[in-house]
Amino acid sequence: MKRWMPIVALFVVSALILTACPSPTPEVIEKVVEKVVEVTVEVEKEVIKEVQVGQPIHIVARCKGAPPHEEGRCNNLVSAVGAANAALAAKGDDRRIELEIIQDNADWGDYKTEFELASDAGQAPDIVCSGHEHIGDWGPAGYLVDVTAMLGDYPEFDDVIDALWASTEWNGKRWGVPQDAEARPMFYNKTLLAELGWSAADIASLPDRIMSGEFTWEDMFDTAEEAVKAGVVKEGNGWWHRPKNGGDFLYYYFAAGGEIVGDGDALIFDKEAALKVYEKLFAAVDRGILSDTRLDGDWTGWHTGITNGDVLFAYGGSWNWAEWFTQYVADRGGQDYLWEHFGFAAIPGMANGTGEPTTLTHPLIYMVSSASEHPDLALLLISKATVKELNTDYAIASGHLGILKSQAEYGPYMSAKFLTQVLPLLEVTTFLPNSPHWSAWSNGYYEGIQAAESGFPAEDALDIAVEYMQNELGDDVIIR
Amino acid sequence: MAEAVMGREVIRGQKPPSRWAQLKATLGAWGFMSPAAVLVLIFFFLPVVILFVISLTDLSSSNFSDPLTFVGLNNYVRLFRDRFFPKILGNTFFYVAVTLSCFNVGMALVLALLTTHINRRAGFFFRLIWLLPRITPSVIYILMWRRISHQPPFGLINQLLAPFGVEPQYWLFEQPWLFVIMVNGFVGASFGLILFSSAIEAIPKDLITAAKVDGASTWQSIRDITLPMIRWPLLFVTTYQTLSLLTSFEYILLLTEGGPGLYTTEVWALTAYKRALKTYFGHNQWGYGAAWGFVLVIIGITMSIIYLRVFRFNELVQEPKIDVL
CATH 3.40.190.10: which residues of chain A? Predict the structure, then answer.
C-alpha cells in the first residue's frame, strides 16, 4: 500500500500545480483573414443565428412533427426569423430574434407531459406547437399567455380562416394561433371495389353519395362484409380504423348523435350514442369486417396493410396521404399510384345516428408559454410564419389543410389536387373539446371501444366506460 | 476464559469497559454503517414515503400547478373498486409464477447444469449466447420479437411455417402470454444461469468424483450433491427474481402494451405506469398511479417476508455453505 503513496502524492501535487497555473496571456496579432461561415442544420435541434445589429433575444420553439413531411411546423418559424427581425428593425426596435427549435415526433402524451413539467419548472420553451385540445389543460393551469388582446397587433392573423379561431379558445379567450388543419376521411380502395363488381361510375360517385347521405356507415359495413365473403379481402380487412387511441373515435360518437360539451365545465357522456358506437364495433368484429386485434398499436403494419391493397375501407387522416406517397408507395409511383388505387370521402353518416356525414379537424396551435420573457417576440415570429407561402409549402408536404383565407386564391395551394379535394370535407367537420377533462373522458370512452372489440357485449362495454368516467371524473362528467 | 455478556466478551477478573469506551464502539459501528444507511434512507426508504404521500393526493396533470390536495384513501378506494383490479392482480401472479418457474429459475437451472456438464469452452460459449437477450437494448430486443411474431404477410414465424402449410397468423396476438413470458424469460434466465453455473463450478470436484467412484449416475449426483449444494443461490434467485418480475413491465409495454384488447396481458406495474405517466392524451394521474405503485410495494414486502421465513434466510446467511464443504 505504502509504495503507492509517492505516486498518489505526485499526482495530487501535479494536479494542484496545473490547476494553479494561470492561463497564458495570448499574444494579440492583427490579421486580415477571409472567413467562411457554415451554418449546420440539424433535424432535431437547430440554432439559427443571423448577423445581429441589436440585442439578441434567444427564443425557443418546441414542435412535434413526423419527419420529414411535418417538420414545417418548426421549420416555418426558422424561415420567419428574417422577416421578424426585419420588422423589428423597421420599427426601430433594437432586439433581434435568435431562434432555437426542438422538434421530434414524440408521443402526444409524452409531449404534453414534457411541456407541463417544463412549465412547472419555469423552463418551458417560448413557443409550443401542440394540439388545440391541450389548451383545455394548459389555459387553466396558467402555462399559456392569453393572446386575445395581442392578436390585433399583427395583421397577418386577419388572414386566418375565422372558423379555426374557435379551436384556440377556452374561457372566452384565445390562447394561440392555428398552425394547421386537416380532415379525417374514409379512404377506399378503388381496385378492390372494382373487383367486388362496382362500376367506375359507382366508385367515382361514392364521395358524393356519402355527402348526400345515400351511402351510410351501415352500407359501408355491408360492402365490407360482402368483400370478405367474396374473398376480395381477408377476414378482418373489410374496414380498418386507427390502431390505437386518438381523436378519430370521437366522431363515431358524434355520428351516433352524441354531445360532449354542455353549458358548464363538465363534459357530457351520452350513453345512448356511446352504446350505438359500441354496438357498431362489436358487430364489425362479429361480422368479420374488423379484426379483434385491430387495436394493436402498430402504425407501420397499418400503413403497410392499406397501401399494399389488403384493406377495402380505412378511416384515416389527410396527412396519411403524404405519409404514403413519401414513404410507402414512393417506389410504385408516389401520388400517381395513390390516385389510381385509392379514393377518399367524408365519414359516412350512421343511419341510426345523425345520418349526416362527418369528419374531424384537429388543428395544431402555436401557443406562447407564460414562462416566456418575450411573448411579443414569440407572437411576432408566429405571425411571420402565418403567411400563405410558408403555410402552403407545409400543407403540400404534409397533407394538412391550409389555415389562411388567401390560400383559396393562391396558385401553388390551388394546384395541389389532394388539398383542394379534401377541403370540402371541412363543411362537415367537428372538433375535440378544449376541456381539462377531455383526456380522462377519452380514456374512458376508449376503454369501452377496446372492450367491444375484445368481445364484450356493447352493454358491458358501455358499463366499463361509464364506470371509468365516474371513477376518474366524478362531478366533471354528466352521464346521461 | 470468556463469557458472552450482552454481546460483548468480558474477561473474568477484569473490569468491564467504561461507558465512554462502549459509546465509542457504538459510534464507530454506526459510523461505518452510516454511508450505507444514508444511501438506503435516501434511495430506498424516502421514495416509498414520498410514494405513499403522493398516493394520498389527487395530484394530476390537470392540477399540477395547484397546491397539493389530500384526498385520504380515496385513490385506494378507486383502485379496489376498479372492475379490472382482480384481473390485473391475477395477471401479475400468473406472469410472475410462470416466468419464474419456467424460465428465471427452471430454464436457468437446466442450462446451468447442461453447460457445466459439457466441455468447458463450449459451456462458456453457450452461456455467452444466453446473455445476448440481456445485453441487447430493450427496444431493439422487443422490435425483433414483434417482427418475428408479426401479422401476415409479415412475421418470421409465418415465413418459416409457410412451407409446412401452416396458416399464417398474428402470432403475438393469438398467443400473447406465450410471447410475454418467453420474451421476459429469455432475459431473466441468464441471471440465474450465471449464478447457478458459478455455484456448480464451485462445488469441490472430489465430491462428484467420490460419488462416481461409488457408482452414482449423473442424475443421482445432480439430485443428491449438486442441487443441495446450490440451495442458497437457488433460493436467492427465486426471491430476487420474484421481486424483479413483480415490478418489471417495460418488455410488456413495448410488446403488447397490456393488450390485445382489454387488460389481457396487463400487469400491476404496467397499470401503475399507465395511470401515472402514460396515456394517449397525456392525462397523468400521479396520485392515483402512486396508489397502484404503493400497493405493489406492499405486495413486494409481503412476498419478501414470506420468502425469508419459508427459506429460513437467517440460517442460510450464518455461514457460507459452499466454502464449508
Answer: 45-178+362-400, 186-360+434-479
Please name the residue of chain A whose CA is at the shortest distance from the CA of residue B143.
A298
| Backbone angles phi and psi of B12, in degrees to 5 | -55, 135
B95 near B102, Cβ under 8 Å? no
| A53/A34 Cα distance (integer angstroms) | 21
Closest of B101, B104, B123, B103 to residue B113, by C-alpha: B123
Residue with cell 375565422: A162
Distance CA A132, CA A466 (A): 25
Alpha-carbon Rg for chain B in angstroms: 26
Per residue in A265-306, pLDDT (tens digit) is 899 999 999 999 999 999 999 999 999 989 988 898 899 999
User: What's the fold here for domain A186-360+434-479?
Assistant: D-Maltodextrin-Binding Protein; domain 2 (3.40.190)
Quote the DSSP letter at residue A133: G
Task: Report pTM.
Answer: 0.81
Whether the ω angle into residue B153 lies within 30 degrees of 0, i.e. cis, is yes
> How many CB contacts within 8 angstroms connect chain A with chain B?
109
Which DSSP category does B118 fall into? S
ipTM of the complex: 0.77
Chain B interface, Cβ < 8 Å to A: 61-65, 78, 81-83, 146, 150-151, 153-154, 170, 173, 257, 259-262, 264, 277-285
User: Is-contact A183 A210, C-beta < 8 A?
Assistant: no
Write the residue in B150, B260, B282 that is nearest to A108 by C-beta: B282
Residues of B in contact with A446 (CB under 8 A): 280
Rg (CA), chain A: 27
Domains of chain B listed by start with CATH number? 58-324 (1.10.3720.10)
Closest CA to A217 of A243, A189, A183, A241: A241
**In CATH, what is the architecture of A45-178+362-400?**
3-Layer(aba) Sandwich (3.40)
Burial class for B39, CB neighbours closer than 10 Å (0-12, 13-18, 19+)? exposed
pLDDT tens profile A133-156 = 999 889 988 899 999 999 999 999
> In this structure, how many other beta carbons lie within 10 angstroms of the beta carbon of residue B147?
14
